Amino acid sequence: MLLLLLLVNSVMDLLSFVESVRVAVELLFCWFVSLAFLMPVDSLCFGEDIFGCSFSSVFIIIIIIIIIIIIIIIIIIIIIIVIIIIIIIIIIIIIIIIIIIIIIIIIITIIFIIIIGIIIIIIIIIIIIIIIIIIIIIIIIIIIIIMIIIIIIIIIIIIIIIIIIITIIIIISDSQWIKTYALSIGAGSKVYQSFKKIGSPSTWKVDKCNGNFCPNFFRHPILDFWKHLPIDE
Description:
transmembrane; transmembrane helix; mainly alpha; 5 helices; disordered C terminus; rod-shaped; membrane
C-alpha cells in the first residue's frame, strides 16, 4: 500500500511538472505572438487568468497544422518504405526465376543429350511454365496483401487525425474545464501567482462580462473569443 501511495504521489508530481512547463511555454509563445502583432504583452496574455492565454485561436491553429504536417510526412514515409520493399521483393523473385530457368535449361540439355529426348523436354517446359505461373500468382498475392496493409495503415492514421481534431475542438469549446483540471492538480500555480498582476488596472473597464471588470482588449476583433472569460473584480 505504501509503495502504491508513493507511486501515485510520483505520478502527480510528474503531472504538475509537465503542466508547469506547458504553462511557461505557452506564456513564452504569447510573448512571441505579441511581438509579431506589434502589441504589448498585456494585450495578449493578461495576468489575472494565465490560462486564458493558453488556448488562443492562433496557437490552436498552429498546433493543428503541425500535427497534420507530421502525419502527412509519416504517411509518405510509410508508402515509400512499402514501395521499396515491394520493388526489392520483385527483384529477388525475378533473379530466382532466372536462376531456376538457367538450371532447368542445363538439366534439360543434359537429359536430352544423355537419355530422354523430345518428350521429356516438352514435359519439363510445361513444368517450367507452371512454375512461372505459380510464382507470378504468388507475386500478385504478395502485392495485394501489401496494398491492403497500406490501406489499413492509412485508415488508422486518418482515424487518429479525426480523433485529434475532435479532441482539440472539445478542448477549445470547454476551456473552463481545462482550467479547473490544471488548477486541481496544482500545476503552474507558481507561474500563475508570479504573473497574476500583469497589465495595468487603468486599462480595465466595466463591461458585459457577467458583471465583472474586464480589460478593454476584450473588444479587440482578433481576441474577441476571450470575451467569455471573466476576470474577478
